[in-house]
Amino acid sequence: MFVVGVTGGIGSGKTTVTNLFQQHDIVVVDADVIARHIMDKGGEALAAVSDRYGQQALFEDGTLNRAWLRERIFQHPEDKQWLNELTHPLIRQQILTQLQQAQSPYVILSAPLLVENRLTKLCDRVLVVDVSEATQLERTQQRDDVSADQVQSIMNAQASREQRLQAADNIINNEADEAQLVTQVEKLHELYLRLALAKRSTH
Question: What angle do the packed helices 31-38 and 77-101 form, to 10 degrees?
Answer without folding.
Answer: 120
